[in-house]
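Weekly structure sync, notes
Attendees: PL (lead), two postdocs, one rotation student
Agenda item 3: pending single-chain targets
PL asked that the sequence for the first pending target be pasted directly into the notes so everyone works from the same version. It is reproduced below exactly as submitted, 323 residues in total.
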Amino acid sequence: MRSAQIWRYNLPMDAGVILRERRLKVREGLVLCLTEHGRQGWGEIAPLPGFSAETVDDAQVALVGWARQWQAGEVLTGAAQALPSVAFGTSCALAELSGQLPGAADYRAAPLCTGDPDELFALLQQMPGEKIAKIKVGLWEAVRDGMVANLLLEALPDLNLRLDANRSWTPLKAAQFAKYVNPQYRARVAFIEEPCKTRAESLDFSQQTGIAIAWDESVREADFVFEAQPGVSALVIKPTLTGSLEKVQAQVAAAHRLGLQAVISSSIESSLGLTQLARIAAWLTPGTLPGLDTLSLMQAQLIRRWPGSPLPCQDTEQLDSIL
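Predicted structure, written out during the meeting:
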């Protein structure tokens, strides 16, 4: 016998979290639990404001319809699959239920710096082994971003940086950034995600500066073609924004065929979603450090704890039951 349960959550965020010029005060989402033959499968459905086309309310309507069909043993229609967050969350629940999603996880995370670089520097000094960090750029002046990146690369000779500009720079601002990064250090910029407003501008930036770039938003656009391009070193894959687990697998495989690094990255999911992303990263991109250091932006965990996190954890009893 099958049963499906759905809850809605609201997790408080740190006050300083800004996404595309809007402040994110709470993280809203849905949790799905499927039960069959004594097994359970969990999934998180969490559209990201400013990035997902669907809202949490849209996702809830689609998810409830999907869960009722699944519970009744009916043929699942494609309506829920049209919404990436729902497609991903339901496919994770089914993969857990069937045992397809391995239990081994990669809980390493590239430390994320959204503000004070001194805090990142102190953290990196204590980090054993490979040093990789991620910095959000484009929030301040490009010159400042370049100076911060250069300072960290100079102070830590074994550091590699991942930078994320979210298409925020004009070619002029991108050039201003590069001007302040010593050419000797540029090879240790693993990539900048989408530095400019268009793909052509980003490719030009890489050619002119020798700084590698990665595609992020572009991967999810209808006209994107998986092809090797000079200066492109990686694809950043955000499953909540991508769609089903099968689609994520296909994109990772396409990146690897091109000799590109595929990086599994979060869309600020709760600890439940992050622990699943850690398992997906260990499964599909072994050896590549995932981009999952976003739990620090929240004030609470959800259902499953991230190892070592001191944040309190909410259980289903504290959530609003939907189904």
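Discussion points:
- The mean pLDDT is 91.
- The first strand starts at residue 2 and ends at 12.
Action: rotation student to compare against the earlier draft before next sync.
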